[in-house]
């Protein structure tokens, strides 16, 4: 059995690679070859990537594609998407093209409030704590002045601090529930710095507060941290058109199609098993843009799914309705994003992707992502309620199967031609390749 290693982080990159290769892989020489083959030829670019995280040994890169023809509030966008799953970019592009001819996507921002909390334990009477909080609140904000000056210049800062009594759920547990405006920054560092300052000021002020007894003076701060649950940092996107204009194929009438989409969304609203997959499809679009723009996909994912459960049962993030002959399909989604800070200026591709998106503000990027999610959901539902997804999906997956079996360029052309008129299945592709090779 491999022994634990001390001081791994102090080893050079080559030493780390040697160690992992010899202790954890069956063919160390080949492991080293694979890892090195993904290093960037440009050593300064590789160094940049090495320094994004710790103990870097290689890069695992993902394909970056473009979904063009997104008309959003009358402006045309080509959306960069970073994702490993076939069909997603094609589906987004198809939905964009479909709605392009119908006025495109309309979007707006519902809110931009970010949240952070100081979680603390107080052994005493709530009324006394409340009086102390009301007296101390201006000092908490004043003490954070040096942290907030540059954010204030950009129009952001601390919005409010509220004392919350959570003792009905956990003995002696209270919070400073803090809200922030962080403009174009995701704001995690800003928020966490402010929270830690609030916590320090709160604790030290309590020690000097005469109305508190000895026990009450000893406020125990458990932790100070931003929340990735941002139900008031919301983007909205919609598409709509007369039902009669919803011609998707000759096999289904526009009316039947519209009604099926509404029914599919209704199912995702009340059935969590379906809602999770429905929302996963939405996140196919959103995560791909989150990654392309260097944003924090874990934060977005956590916040989105919490929002999808806000009414006590996991539910659809999109909505569909038919009113007076008009089909409307829309999404409301919490997205805490940044277009400054983080990787935005550091990673050359992230910088480029933001340029492709016309250097959006965080608010604009929220709306673009909401659109990517809505488009993806529309594309998925359109397939699901008509042909099913496998037909299109397997067609896109064909190239993956061919690559898996080492098909040559000529073999690819021949097999792709064959499957223009045949249903793609894994075994079908393998058989076809075999028969070409036998010839
Ligand atoms: C696959 O990645 C996503 C879908 O399953 C989404 C959905 O079912 O709505 C097609």
Topology, element by element:
Elements: H1 13-24, H2 28-37, H3 43-50, E1 64-72, E2 75-82, H4 88-100, E3 106-109, E4 114-121, H5 126-143, H6 145-153, E5 157-165, E6 173-181, H7 188-207, H8 214-217, E7 220-227, E8 234-242, H9 254-270, H10 272-292, H11 297-308, E9 318-323, E10 326-334, H12 348-356, H13 362-384, H14 390-404, H15 409-418, H16 426-438
Helix pairs in contact: 1-2, 4-13, 5-7, 9-10, 10-11, 10-13, 14-16, 15-16
(R)-mevalonate binds at residues 85, 277-278, 280-281, 284, 380, 384, 389.
Structure, described:
Strand 1 (64-72) and strand 2 (75-82) form a beta hairpin. This protein has 4 domains: 8-50, no CATH class; 64-110 and 234-387, 3-hydroxy-3-methylglutaryl-coenzyme A Reductase, Chain A, domain 2 (Alpha-Beta Complex); 114-227, Alpha-Beta Plaits; 392-438, no CATH class. Helix 1 packs across helix 2, helix 5 crosses helix 7 and helix 10 (272-292) crosses helix 13. The mean pLDDT is 96. The radius of gyration is 27 Å and the shape is globular. The chain is an alpha+beta fold. It has helices at residues 13-24, 28-37, 43-50, 88-100, 126-143, 145-153, 188-207, 214-217, 254-270, 272-292, 297-308, 348-356, 362-384, 390-404, 409-418, 426-438; strands spanning 64-72, 75-82, 106-109, 114-121, 157-165, 173-181, 220-227, 234-242, 318-323, 326-334. The two termini are 49 Å apart. It is 49% helix and 18% strand. It contains 16 helices and 10 strands. The strands form 3 sheets. A 4-stranded antiparallel beta sheet has the order 3-8-10-9. The protein has a 4-stranded antiparallel beta sheet with strand order 5-6-4-7. A two-stranded antiparallel sheet has the order 1-2. The site of (R)-mevalonate (MEV) has 9 residues, from helix 10 and helix 13.
